[in-house]
Amino acid sequence: MIPRLSYLPAYIQGVISHFKHAIPSIHLGNPLKPNQVWFDHEGIPLKWHYPVGVLFDLFFTESNQQKPRCPWKLGVHFHSFPNRTVLPLENEKSIESHFMQSLKQSTFARLGSSKLIMRMSEAQQRQMWQSVVQRSGAKFNEAIKELYDTNTADSPIPVRLLFGNAPFVQLRVLPEEHGTLQKLLCWAWNGSSTDAGNVDNVMIHGVLVPTSLAVALVYRYFAYPDGFLYIVVGRLQEE
After folding, report:
1. What angle do CA 73, 166, 85 make, to 5 degrees?
2. What is the pLDDT of residues 31-41, one digit of tens each?
3. 29: phi > 0 → left, psi -120 to 50 → alpha, else beta; which?
4. The overall pTM is greater than 0.90
5. Domain residues for 45?
6. What is the distance between the alpha carbons of residues 108 and 102, in angstroms, rounded to a whole number?
7. Residue 153 has what pLDDT?
8. pLDDT tens across 130-147, in order?
C-alpha cells in the first residue's frame, strides 16, 4: 500500500518492474524513463506533486460519495505524458526536490525564514525524504524536530486550500485572526474573516472535519510532512 503522506513518482520504478513484460518499449530494448510514466483516475491525470492522500481526498469530495471507494483504482500510462495538465516530471529526483521546496516555503511561512532548511546537509535532506517514502515516522520526527522547536501558539500556519481541479491556494494563516476552519475558509473565499457562509464537505487526511475546529489544533495533528495543512473543500455556499 502507498501511504497518504507519500507521492506517486516515488513508486515509479516498482510500477515499471511490475509491468515490464507488458511495455512494448522495454521489449524493444529501450529503457523506460520515469518521465514517461503517469497515472490517472477515471480518465483524469493525477498531479504527481500532490501527496497521495490529497489526491484521494480531492476525488472523494468531488464525487459526493458518503464513503470513499477502496481500494482506489488508478490507471498507469507509459507514453503521451499530459504536459498541459500535469507538471513535467524530469526524473525521480524531481519529486524529492519539489518536496524540499515545499518544506522551505512552509518553514518560511511559519518562521519568516527558511535558514533551518538551508543549513541542512544534502545527506540530512535525503534522509528526511527517505523517511517519508519508507513511512518511518520516528526518523522523520527526529529530522524535523529543530524546525518546530520555535513554534508557538501564535505562529503563522501554512495552508493549501484545494477546490476541485483548480490549482491550490496557498495561505499564511494567522491563528488570532482566523481561529477556526470556518473563519479561514470564508476569509479565503470572500476576502472576509466573518462567519458568513456555510462550508460543505471539508476533508483533511480522509476525515470529514467540522469547521468549528481551531486551525492551530488541526495543523498540529494533520499537517503533511512538507509542513503544509492541505484542506480539500467540496463546495462553498453563501447564506
Report:
1. 65
2. 677 778 899 99
3. left
4. no
5. 8-77
6. 10
7. 67
8. 888 888 888 888 877 777
Cell numbers representing residue 132 in the block: 517519508
The CATH code of the domain that includes 140 is 1.10.246.190
DSSP H helices, the chain, are: 12-19, 24-27, 52-63, 93-111, 115-118, 122-133, 137-148, 181-190, 215-222
Q: Is residue 86 one of the residues assigned to a domain?
A: no
pLDDT per residue as tens digits for the range 175-198: 888 889 988 988 887 654 443 345
Evaluate the CA torsion angle 101, 102, 105, 110 in order and state its sign. Answer: negative
Q: Any residues with CB less than 8 A from the CB of 186 and at least 6 apart, and which?
A: 192, 193, 194, 195, 196, 197, 199
Q: Supply the Cα-derived Rg of the chain in whole angstroms.
A: 19
Q: Do residues 190 and 237 make contact, with C-beta atoms less than 8 angstroms apart?
A: no
Q: What cell was used for 163?
A: 477546490
CB contact set of 36 (below 8 Å; sequence gap of 6+): 78, 79, 81
Looking at the structure, do residues 204 and 223 belong to the same domain, yes or no?
A: yes
What is the β-pairing status of strands 229-237 and 157-163? Answer: parallel
Provide the CATH number for the domain around residue 182: 3.10.20.90
CATH number at residue 29: 3.10.20.620
**Residue 184 counted as domain residue:** yes
